[in-house]
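Worked example (supplementary).
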Amino acid sequence: MSEMSILFALVLWFAQRRQLRAAPIRERVIWYAMVGLAISFAFVISWHLAPNLQPLAWIDRLFDPLTHKLYQIL
Amino acid sequence: MQIQISRVQLITILVWVVLGTGIVTIPAAIAQFTIHDAWMIPLFFLFGGGGVALVAHLFMKTFPHQSLAQAAENSLGHIFGSGLVIWILIWLYLAVTTIARELSAFATTVILPHTPEYVISAFNLFVVAYLVYLGLEVIARVNEFITPLVLISVPILFILSVRNFEFEQFLPMFADGMSPIARAAVVQLLDYSLEMLIVLQIIPTLESPQTIGKDILIASAIITGILSLIVTLTVGIVGPSTSYLNYPVLEIVRSIRIGKFIERLDTLYVMGVVSTLILKVAMFHYCLCDTWKDLFHLSSIRLLAWSGGLVVWTGSLFLFGNMADVYHFIMDTAPIYFLLTMVGIPLLLIATQKLFKK
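After joint prediction of all chains, the assembly is encoded as:
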């Protein structure tokens, strides 16, 4: 998956290079940040690191007890 | 040119925003709590739709011609407003990755079981990013085009499956009291009905924003009718096995055999579900990009549509390792999370505006 994400990023950069050059610096920074984030996610998945990271643990800790409480009340 | 989304387009968008995944997930989610009384659970959707209509109407009256992200900044100032918009962005990202994962899992399981899910997901997100790149009006027009096709083919499939229907599956009624019924209604009341509130982000593009509450009510009535039909038929045909199946509606369509020639109609059903799921992901991805645009005051979403699509593609597989993670999020995390985000934030903005308005 990591190789595929790099390939897509390169194709995307090639297809949008003129728009990127014309865009303000803020839009370019966001574009590169998004592509970088996507590639890093792909590497985390390819190296099987995602289960150890538990990226949604914080949101589970915030809302799971409240939802379970609601189910208990009902 | 200013985008103008008509009332009919808005209603079709709302219908598929809920039914895109609802048609796949809701029967199985309801069956986790009750089988005999499952037929009455979709009726509760009207209450959710009524609440959503009220929130949207109040929001539109308080912030006419403003999106949710714009209203947050105007009402709470740059620092606090931006904080709330980032919270909404995280919510939208989690919602769109959940739906994208449901779409890729459905397509992998049903159509291409030997193909890696990330490849199917990439193709799906390519279509979604292209739709978003073309703009909201294109998404709305595709919605308009798909709706009659689905509304003609799906009822035919259900009418053909009625001969396997058994009324005994619904007896005895109220055998376990009201508690399982109330718990079964939570997911569709607090997850699916609240998803309709993403329209708050597209208020500036509506042709007739003053009728937003009425349009949400009409869409809710249509959704309730379709969901009632689907859930009743699913439980009446599949019975208690509904709670063990990932895609129970698919099983009832697969069961259709008339004579020697009419069978395997599930192809039609799968085409309809994949089309509507893509429209749902596209709508959420559009709102994600538009919120991003409002937060950073960007000129357009054309660059974001593709790079954002890439993040949604990898994020859907990174955040949710398997479908059990998706169901855990939908059943255990989303109800209160969605309620606090999509009802709490608009009500907070309305209250702030009313209290501190000059």
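Two points are worth noting when inspecting this output. Chain B touches chain A through 40 residues (CB under 8 Å). The domain at 7-349 of chain B is CATH 1.20.1740.10 (Amino acid/polyamine transporter I).
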